[in-house]
Design goal:
The chain is α+β, with helices and mostly antiparallel strands. It has one domain. An 8-stranded antiparallel β-sheet has the order 3-4-5-6-2-1-7-8. The longest helix is centred in the middle third of the chain and has 10 residues. The chain is globular and about 40 Å long.
Amino acid sequence: MTTHLDEDNYLTIQLLSYDNPTELTERYYFLAMSTLQATTLIDQNRKIIFSELFAYTDDNEYLVEETTKTFQTIKDFNDFFLYNEQYYIHNCEIELENGLKINSHDDGEVSIQFSDNKSDYKIIESIFEKYKLDKKLIAVLISKPKHCIKIDKQSNITGDYKNFDDYLENGRD
């Protein structure tokens, strides 16, 4: 699904990270990426196994669980938020079939976790392609687990921080 989102006009991925939460999983982290910028790149027929969402409007109308329970596929999730743009996704945790997990915070930090059998690696490649990130950065990330790699708009590395706390302390502009 190729969708142009408003976020594409103002969010630029500026921080990347990679780690292995377990021996059999990989996780990629993107700062300055919205939830929908990630979820619209996933096979839309992928079934949702679990979701926990905290979303609200400017008028403090909160998304209720009865609504989120209707999300059977990632397409259902995407369609709801694409057609109900008044909702801001504050926190999001989604587990899809085959163990793919998407987490986001403040609708600007996204992590994608999957088993290391590489079946979902194409999602990472899609992100790098759509947002014009140099794919050579993937090897850098894998060689430096847990490091936060700061990049500019041309994918040049402008900072390497040993972890997110180090980035918060020393790398924020």
